[in-house]
């Protein structure tokens, strides 16, 4: 059993192993810290380089790397030894595997404790984004005639027995019928006029630990159309309760900064360990908004959208990641 902070760190390392800027990328096995938040100009000098370059969210740091903040900047580093360190203005830190970086009075230090289990092999591996976009574009072209695209829940675990449903209607329909099935057959069928639906009030909650699939039929005056099926599964009741408890622990750790990039980083990584892909997407969307110039959040989002079956959004996010990486390199 490892500490939660240690596991979250490892999760982030694996997630961020696809760092697109070659001047920053390092192998996960070498990584001692990850940047989870920064404001203003923060610079990094890699151990094997002579010059400082701009750092971004997700920058991986190894033995001998230097981080430097300017007069109006600060940065937060998640270390592998269970600490999250805040480095204030006009400061410098040398990354080391020794105890000193985590114990010196550098700035605010948070300890992220408690325990969780995770299968690291299930985490996102490094990908070549140009190839990803090409492959996803091929899939998108095959499915381009679909007039209804299911968005949530899709190819994911969920933690509630009364989920909401959403989809995109790519042409105008008068009404939609949402059909939910399990292995025994139809669970319920409901007609709505919008492209979203809360769980029906009169229906029994879904079974924890169960798997379901659903599709939507769009109705016009004369014709109708049907979306492909999408599957989702519920965590067990015990797992759902554990997730709720861990969410409280994580949010309490960041109670003084409830909308910080570091909080969203830790939550997003945690959700991924539980297979809660839609929840993870929300966290990395927040990270991408906070860190508007960072390519990595968009790369992670591209991979997540691909996993849940939303190829259009996957392509869009991977293209943003490539554009930002090129723009950052050209500066």
DSSP helix count? 8
What is the helix content?
Answer: 25-40%
Number of strands: 20
- Which of globular, elongated, flat, extended, rod-shaped describes the shape? elongated
The overall pLDDT, averaged over residues, is 80
Structural class: alpha+beta
Tell me the major beta sheet: 6 strands, mixed
Report, as a whole number of angstroms, the end-to-end distance. Answer: 44 Å
Describe the fold and architecture.
This protein is α+β, with helices and mostly antiparallel strands. Among the domains are: 2-125, no CATH class; 146-233, Immunoglobulin-like, CATH 2.60.40. The chain has helices at residues 4-15, 100-103, 129-142, 237-253, 261-273, 277-290, 296-308, 311-330; strands at 2-3, 33-39, 42-45, 53-54, 60-61, 66-69, 74-79, 83-87, 92-94, 109-111, 115-116, 148-152, 156-158, 165-169, 175-182, 185-192, 196-197, 211-219, 224-226, 230-234. Strands 13, 15, 16, 18, 19 and 20 form a 6-stranded mixed beta sheet that branches. Strands 5-2-7-8-10 form a 5-stranded antiparallel beta sheet. A hairpin with a 4-residue loop joins strand 18 and strand 19 (224-226). Helix 1 crosses helix 5. The longest helix is centred in the last third of the chain and has 20 residues, at 311-330. The radius of gyration is 22 Å and the shape is elongated. The model is unreliable at 1-29, 100-107 and 113-126 (pLDDT under 50).
């Amino acid at each position: 059993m490892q500490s939660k902070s240690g596991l979250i760190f490892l999760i982030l390392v694996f997630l961020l192993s696809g760092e697109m800027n070659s001047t920053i990328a390092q192998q996960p096995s070498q990584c001692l810290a990850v940047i989870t938040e920064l404001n203003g100009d923060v610079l990094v000098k890699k151990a094997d380089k002579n010059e400082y370059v701009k750092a971004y969210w997700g920058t991986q740091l190894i033995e001998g790397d230097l981080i430097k903040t300017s007069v109006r900047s600060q940065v937060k580093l998640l270390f592998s030894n269970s600490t999250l360190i805040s480095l204030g203005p006009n400061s410098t830190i040398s990354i080391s595997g020794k105890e000193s970086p985590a114990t010196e009075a550098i700035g605010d230090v948070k300890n992220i404790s408690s325990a969780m289990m995770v299968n690291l092999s299930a985490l996102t591996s490094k990908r070549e984004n140009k190839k990803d976009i090409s492959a996803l574009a091929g899939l998108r072209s095959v499915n381009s005639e679909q007039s209804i695209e299911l968005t949530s829940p899709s190819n994911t675990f969920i933690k509630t027995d009364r989920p909401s449903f959403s989809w995109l209607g790519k042409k105008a329909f008068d009404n939609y019928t949402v059909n939910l099935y399990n292995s025994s057959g139809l669970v319920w069928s409901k007609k709505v006029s919008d492209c979203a639906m809360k769980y029906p009030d009169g229906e029994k909650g879904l079974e924890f630990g169960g798997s379901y699939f659903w599709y939507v039929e769009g109705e016009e005056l004369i014709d109708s159309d049907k979306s492909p099926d999408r599957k989702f599964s519920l965590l067990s009741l015990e797992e759902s309760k554990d997730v709720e408890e861990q969410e409280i622990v994580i949010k309490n750790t960041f109670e003084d900064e409830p909308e910080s990039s570091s909080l969203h980083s830790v939550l997003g990584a945690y959700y991924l360990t539980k297979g809660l892909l839609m929840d993870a997407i929300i966290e990395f969307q927040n990270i991408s908004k906070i860190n508007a110039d960072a390519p990595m959040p968009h790369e992670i989002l591209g991979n997540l959208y691909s996993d849940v079956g939303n190829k259009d959004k996957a392509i869009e996010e991977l293209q943003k990641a490539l554009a930002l990486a090129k723009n950052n390199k050209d500066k």
